[in-house]
Amino acid sequence: MPRDEIRVQIQRIDSEGHAANFVETEQIVHYNGSKASFVQTRGSIPVFWSQRPNLKYKPRPQISKVANHMDGFQRHFDSQVIIYGKQVIINLINQKGSEKPLEQTFATMVSSLGSGMMRYIAFDFHKECKNMRWDRLSILLDQVAEMQDELSYFLVDSAGQVVTNQEGVFRSNCMDCLDRTNVIQSLLARRSLQAQLQRLGVLHVGQKLEEQDEFEKIYKNAWADNANACAKQYAGTGALKTDFTRTGKRTHLGLIMDGWNSMIRYYKNNFSDGFRQDSIDLFLGNYSVDELESHSPLSVPRDWKFLALPIIMVVAFSMCIICLLMAGKSALISHSSIYFLECLPFFYNILSF
Which residues form the signal peptide (predicted)? Predict the structure, then answer.
């Protein structure tokens, strides 16, 4: 199978505890000299697991049976606590089927670590929101509302005095930390923004963001664009479920667009991702060049057809020049040149075969 048709199986965490697809997102508000922000993180489930491409739409996750999961897990969250403080972990993967072992492993790791700085919440996104019941996302928001109030947000007034500090972050994940994750992050950020704007006096008590139509449109589009930017880097297409992020409603047109993007992702991930992965490995220094290998992996081998074509074109061009210079003086050369030019398409077809 050609290299471009192979997608390398990659572990979602390394020995230093760095998780794949890790992204920090900060929502910043400026108003009359005051500044407020709300930080969230997303990242792959921090245990040693991977998915091997096998032409299935959803390759089964494989959890390593030999790796020290707790070592990588603890390294990851030790660094997260140092940087961000308390961790509220929201795991959005399925709690049945092929994703179930991952959810169970994640929950077990959190429980085994026994850190008072971490809270774990499992929310089966697909089960809860099936049959277009996306209003049920309010169940999760209600569940974490008190925790979000406890973590708070950062706020500094126009005089430069810190009014409140954010004491921790929500760390959300699904399988690839793209589509489901972005939906939940946008809702959490929206709830924080509501509180910030009331604190800054932009909204009066009792006023809601959804009542500000123009601002609502801009805000939702910003989060949908954020989803697309993350998804294009990793999956090669825009994010799924952005119809909900942009409009607040799940639509049939959105389902169709998700199907189209999913089809493109399937093709790219299985048949054209090898070159991109090689490029990433090269830039990250993960590709080591064998000193005994004489052939450069960056060069494309050329056979005799690529060498012969320029020579034929030079000869043809030369014959044309001769014909123009010696028109009427050498019928033999003229007829030979015309015959040669008429044969060029034939030679080209042979060389292009």
Answer: none
